[in-house]
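Hey, can you fold this one?
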Amino acid sequence: MTQLTEPPLTTAGRPAWRHVSVSAVVAGLVAVAISYAGPLLVVLGAAQRAGLDPGQTASWVWAISVGSGIICVSMSLVTRQPVVVAWSVPGAALLITTLGDYAYSDAIGAFIVTGVLTVVLGVTGWFGRLMRALPRPIMAGVLAGVLLPFVLDAAGASAEAPIVAGGLVLAYVLGRRFLPRYAVLVALAAGVTLAFATGTTTAPHLSAGLTVPLWTTPTFDLQAIIGISLPLLIVTMAGQNGPGLAMMHSNGYAANDRLLLGAAGAGSVLFAPFGAHSINLAAITAGICCGREAHEDPARRYVAGISCGVFFVAFGFAGQNIVELLGAVPEQLVTAAAGVALIGALQGALTDVVTADAAAVGAVRVPTNGGRRGAAGLEAGVVTLAVTASGLTVAGIAAPFWGFLAGALVYLVLSVTARRRGA
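Sure. Predicted structure:
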């Protein structure tokens, strides 16, 4: 288990520009590219299903991009840690089936309620205390379950497009061998070059205009709050903020949950009238900025968080053009790039699932098959991973929540059983 540290003292009081590195800037760019390549499409799907007009949709993209970018930059500078926030992907998936059932202004009001509740859970420390009370393998299991499908999809993409996607994966392996800090950049460059060489790219339809945000005055409806706010809060906290904190912890950063969740919730409230459904700690792309690909020195990885924020703000004003550009390259290239970029993060999460010291996480020793001693936290972590990776969706709530719930239940049952046997 990676030891948690306070914000690195080696960077204190020094200007951020002195710690800028190509690998950290690229890590921020890759994180943003992955956010636009996949998660943004979920948002666009929700907007389409809800019947939003192009102006409202563009404003939604602007709000989640610019809001996320401002928090990334400010929190990374304040904490000197690679803080990456983004929009709630399971939350957007939830909205695909629910947003169209309510007036848009009522949905905006529900988004504000979710943000306020996030602030309360964050600044009071209630959510942080809950996370610390649970064994690390459970949260690591949620994180690993979220990341694993992306890495597995890279293998499938390589089979579908062996030259482009397979070449990208091979370039990443070679990059890890000869240029480990720039392996992701090498892989992306190789993938784009191969895509052009094989003629698998298309011409994007770009425009010179910038995205203009639209204000929607919120209204508050009890049914919308029950139907949107509460489910959105649950899937965002369990599926994004929890794994986001786990991601930072697994990479050695003692994240201030009160500060970070409070900032994310405040950002959600401020940008909700422009369409932002939820701004939260990133679980997937954070692994790119927190891991070794950003920089070998953990004290200098915060630059990746700043870079991510800057690109978010810039791309937010050209959101439609970014979508066009990402649509111009083969889907398999984006899938493979996401997979190789997240290998390091998955490795860290899996390590925490299977090797976290039971005493350190408060796990109760229980008997396992063969008479050997195991840890309740370990078994709960494996169950959490399996349920989360399954993609299970029940009542519109995505798999990370159910994986978290299943792991917590297994841990509770095994802990109680062990205590009774020991009594």
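Residues 92 and 398 are 10 Å apart (CA to CA). Let me know if you want another pass with a different chain boundary.
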